[in-house]
Write a structure and sequence with these properties.
Length: about 220
């Protein structure tokens, strides 16, 4: 995936290729497993498209191996003329907004979920730990804007399972219904953050609460 890198970090990077990508609208699948996940080397042969990154040593709480160690043998050589692997942060919000992206394979982190909703992109839900599994339930069973992958509880999701869910999402009537729902969710989210929308009102109510609490603490002190 296209990523932030010294030689690529320039405005309009994705837009510069829009004419080409317009011929493949909604055909790309974006995958991100979060910023703290280190996949097991044996698990990478089942799905070979991803973004990887290594933080600066002074910013890392724990040592990370070279991301190239997780790629299949010969992967970089085979894909050098048609792919791009960079070892830094992906501009995810920009990527999922791109018109070529038709689905998002996500770990169900809430920031990622919100970015997908704001982009109107349906999700293939692959939770890893903590609240991500609860988020998956909300996205799949309540909002019905994502589909789950089988095997994540055993920490082994096979390529065939991912392929099946991609085809369900991109080719079936069920997938069309799901895409229609996420488009509605996008409209609702956009309305919520506008002036006077529910998120806008709640945010300013939160700021007011902080202001009152600060005044109360000052008086008490």
């Amino acid at each position: 995936m296209i990523n932030r890198s010294p030689h690529l970090n320039r405005p309009g990077l994705l837009q510069s290729r829009s004419k080409h990508y317009a011929t493949i609208l909604n055909s790309a699948i974006y995958r991100n497993k979060g910023s703290t996940t280190i996949p097991p080397p044996g698990g990478t042969t089942h799905l070979q498209t991803w973004t990887v990154r290594s933080p600066r040593e002074e910013q890392s709480r724990f040592a990370e191996p070279d991301p190239e160690a997780f790629l299949p043998d010969g992967f970089l050589q085979r894909t050098r003329d048609r792919g791009l692997v960079l070892k830094n942060w992906a501009p995810q919000a920009e990527v999922v907004q791109h018109e070529a992206v038709g689905a998002f394979v996500t770990h169900c982190g809430w920031n990622s979920a919100l970015e997908a909703i704001m982009a109107g992109v349906p999700m293939i839900c692959w939770p890893l730990y903590a609240e991500q599994r609860l988020n998956k339930v909300h996205l799949v069973e309540e909002m019905k804007i994502g589909v789950p992958v089988e095997g994540y509880e055993e920490e082994l999701v096979r390529a065939q399972e991912v392929e099946a869910k991609v085809r369900l999402l991109m080719e079936s009537d069920q997938g069309k219904e799901l895409r229609d729902r996420v488009a509605m969710a996008k409209e609702m989210a956009a309305h919520a953050v506008k002036e006077g929308g529910s998120s806008d009102v709640a945010f300013y109510a939160f700021l007011k609460h902080l202001e009152v609490s600060k005044l109360d603490n000052t008086k008490a002190g």
